[in-house]
TrEMBL record:
It comes from Prolixibacter denitrificans. GO terms for cellular component: outer membrane-bounded periplasmic space. Keywords: Hydrolase, Membrane, Protease, Serine protease, Transmembrane, Transmembrane helix. This is Carboxyl-terminal processing protease. PROSITE patterns: PDZ. Coiled coil: none annotated.
Amino acid sequence: MDKKNRRLITWTPVLLAFAIIVGIFIGIVLQRRQQSAFDHVKSPGNSKIDLILNLVNDYYVDSVNEKQLVNNAIPDILKQLDPHTTYIPKKDMKEVNEEMSGNFGGIGVQFSIQNDTVTVVDVISGGPSQKLGIQAGDRIVMVNDTTIAGVGITNDKVIQKLRGKKGTHVKVSIARRGIPNLIDFDITRGDIPLYSVDVSYMIDKNTGYVKVGRFAENTYTEFMKALDKLNQDSVKNVIIDLRGNPGGYLAAVIKMVSEFLDKGELIVYTKGLHQPKKMFRADGKGSMLGKKVVVLIDEFSASASEIFSGAIQDNDRGLIVGRRSFGKGLVQEQIPFSDGSAMRLTVARYYTPSGRCIQKPYDEGNKAYYQDIARRFKHGEFEQRDSIHFNDSLKYHTRLGRVVYGGGGIMPDVFVPADTTGFSDYYGKITSKGLVYRYAFDYADAHREVLSKLKDAKAMEAYLNKQDVFAKFIRFAAKNGVPRDSKGLKISGKIIKTQLNAYIARNILGEEGFYPIIKEIDTTLQKAISVIESDKMPD
């Protein structure tokens, strides 16, 4: 072995050791440098979310849209809290605010799309379209020189084209029966009201009926007009229909229920971990004191509807008729953000005067929470009151000592099961095809001139019964794939005939034509009428 190779063997271990030491040193230096690079995001004042965003912005392999990242993450964060704490993106704020304020910018028509044709069903009184002479039955063919007829237009797209900021213009071309050419209108959009009170009318000489669809800024004013109308007819009993009402403004429901209660009577109270207990009481200015009251609710009555029902029930002011309500008793405050978005944060819970918490449990997660209605249906709650069981720990008492139960929602005093007695395969087929609504619309449109001379639901129903509309509809259904079924007609004939008359009346007279006719097959309303005329009402 020569001297050169002996030296290489001698120095190899030394060189290897030196390389390892140098490698360790470089690793330590790099680690220290890397650590120092992240020191600015590790300050104790920053939350983990801030740290993550900083790290992504400074070190992520690709560019990211931080704003979009945050907007996508917020709903997932809030989902961990409760089902009603929500984030409202800027793009949705306009629609949310319109819904709650009770008005929007538009041309003032109600429309229906049949056979790819947008047809005006009703023109809002005092609105921009009425002032220009647009009529029910007109077909909207073009909007701003764009054809919308025969192109598969949807409700949402029509609304997008017709709605807009007050004072802006929209050009509409209309086809009208009997006129060969299109009629052009240049419409200046105005404030169009979103009504909360669907209808008010006298069922008989003693009993009035008011249907409230939601609670918004203008609801109390509308409600008072409805009650004034009934009082002018010397109403003695009133039925307030809150079925399907999802709730809304607390201020509106407080003033509305106060019309029925004596001064100082408790309506509702709220409290939360960071919110002191707050009591809401009647102001003593009620216009309906001394009159019998029944409130109708169902599984879709929520929030403010449950406050109204709970106050009437716990104060023994009237009776609740229907099925157990939804169980939404969480109080939200809307917090605006600088970018135009907002968050609705739950800050407290609602409690009825007896102390019942309106909110149903949500500890199994949001999915289970929103599937609760389906679970109730499967369990038989819509059909049998006995299927609902309450623990004694949920027992409360009204002002006069009647037993009521907590645990979420309002349980009615008089249970009315969902009515399926008139359902048949024949009825199911014509319903799935929407044939009743289609025929009613076509019939009303073809006979609009004659029907428009009829001024109320009673006259409308009497006229339609003489025209044999029911028999004509059966032939129409057969042409549209649902042949005549004598057995099905025997079971469902009354429902179909009543719906036909009611929908035709709605197309001509609006809700004041629809509700007085449809009440004939409304088992919950019929039960309320019998209850309010009985001696079962609280004194």
